[in-house]
Amino acid sequence: MPLVELRDVYKTFQNGVAPVPAVQGVSLALERGEFAALAGPSGSGKTTVLNLIGGLDRPTEGRLFFDGRDISELPETERTQLRRRRIGFIFQTFSLIPVLSSVENVELSLALLGFTTTDMRRMSLEILEHVGLKGLENRRPAQLSGGQQQRVAIARALVKDPEIVLADEPTANLDHDTGAEILDLMADLNRTQGTTFLFSTHDPKVMERARRLILLDDGRVVSDRTVPSRGEGT
């Protein structure tokens, strides 16, 4: 059973009185442990597909399944619980809370899941060390480099042990070398922890590292290919 499956999914937004089709008849299945990228030009529907999988948007038509369960028309409360417990998000703008320290930003992912304060702090410190931020736990975002902020965002996504991490243009605001380091980190987490990653990107570095490349154009899948040799640190 795929972890995620889209069956003939459409998503249309209303721009004033005119409908704007963002996703048009997309069908794809994502297995556990994949390291995959949604690629295509700006406006091709990449972010919309991520938002649909993450339960941030609902399909206009079609069905969307998570771990075999149809989530297309789940009540908002159940969609929220799905996002909190089983899905991690990484955004190109990092989306960290400026007044919170690194460890406090990571703890946000656990705050609504019933963990004790002691467990939240322990788990957050452990994941920050795992992503290479030991010693920077008490720094606020403004005191960190772009790459360090993205590592905090990765730690925040991973601390709850999600089944899939959805990363929207994760290297867009990073320089070449820092972006490569972040990709190395995520590839290592995929390989050692089995975490499923799905990126949206137009960054050639990300496309080269993905083991599956799904090309979108005008809201449609135009190519879907797997390259097993990719993403292994080369």
Q: How would you describe the overall organization of this protein?
A:
There is one protein chain. By secondary structure, this protein is α/β, with parallel strands linked by helices. It has a single domain, classed as Rossmann fold (3-Layer(aba) Sandwich). The chain contains 7 helices and 10 strands. The strands form 2 sheets. A 6-stranded mixed β-sheet has the order 6-7-8-3-9-10, with helices on both faces. Strands 2-1-4-5 form a 4-stranded antiparallel β-sheet. The protein is globular. The two termini are 30 Å apart. The C terminus is likely disordered.
| Separation, N- and C-terminal Cα atoms | 30 Å
Query: CATH superfamily membership, which one?
Result: P-loop containing nucleotide triphosphate hydrolases
The whole-angstrom Rg is 17 Å
Number of strands: 10
Note the overall shape. globular
Put simply, the count of helices is: 7
Major pleated sheet: 6 strands, mixed
State the gist of this model:
This protein has helices at residues 46-53, 76-86, 102-111, 117-130, 146-158, 176-193, 204-209; strands at residues 4-15, 18-30, 35-39, 61-66, 69-70, 87-91, 164-168, 196-201, 212-217, 220-226. With 234 residues, it is of the alpha/beta class. The strands form 2 sheets. It has a 6-stranded mixed sheet, sandwiched between helices. A 4-stranded antiparallel sheet has the order 2-1-4-5.
